[in-house]
Amino acid sequence: MKMYIYTYQYDKIKAEGYKSLAALPRDENFSGRLKVHAHSAGTEDPAGIMQYLENTFPGRLRSVCALTETAPSDTFRHPYLNTLVHCADIISVNLEQLLKDGIVEAIYAKDLRRTILDNPDFENIFPVSGIAEIKAAAADDPVDWHLCEKDEYLPYSPWAAIKHYFLVLANGCIPPEYITLEVDRSPKRFR
């Protein structure tokens, strides 16, 4: 089963692999990568954010986010999603192979579509038993890429309206040989 990841750093990923927060260098950019979780963590302190993340489920700092499908090339009202869809590269990984080779040790889903409006602080993260469960969920409840454009969802990240998965990585990184470039949008980024 292919899982998809949007990225602006394919050249680096091609050389070094796709790294989780746990595998990233603790350089001047690291704190900025954590800031997206500050609201949920209730703190701006990097150590506090890391502690919060790891307490949400075991291995969260070693996890990466992935999707079961790619977004249509529509124009989206949500500015973050519109930029992501039209400017980011898309890479894929074969989840069966990652599980077989011990690179992925657990899978969690995050689905805020039905909870974010009632309780924005509730993350609604839950374990997934395997690929069959992911496939069934994708077939029964496909991604509505335009849900985040509704007025009530616009204040939130588009990820609040898009079900996605956390792949917990044994070593915090997907090696480059497991990664396929599906969509190369780099010329659009550098115009």
Q: Could you explain how this protein is built, in words?
A:
This protein is an alpha+beta fold and 191 residues long. The protein has one domain. The chain is built from eight helices and nine strands. Strands 3-7-5-6 form a four-stranded antiparallel β-sheet. The protein starts with a strand and ends with a helix. The model has no long low-confidence stretch (mean pLDDT 90).
Count, helices: 8
Number of domains: 1
Largest sheet: 4 strands, antiparallel
- Measured between the Cα atoms of the first and last residue, the distance is 34 Å
**SSE string, helix = H, strand = E?**
EHEHHHEHEHEEHEEEH
Total strand segments: 9
Shape: globular
Relevant terms:
single chain, 191 residues, alpha+beta, four-stranded antiparallel sheet, three-stranded antiparallel sheet, 8 helices, globular
SSE inventory with pairings:
Layout (H helix, E strand, L loop, with lengths): L1 E6 L2 H7 L1 E2 L10 H6 L2 H4 L4 H11 L6 E4 L12 H9 L1 E6 H6 L3 E7 L14 E3 L3 H10 L23 E6 L3 E2 L4 E5 L2 H4 L2
Antiparallel strand pairs: 1-4, 2-8, 3-7, 4-9, 5-6, 5-7
Structure described in brief:
The protein has 191 residues and is an alpha+beta fold. The protein has eight helices and nine strands.
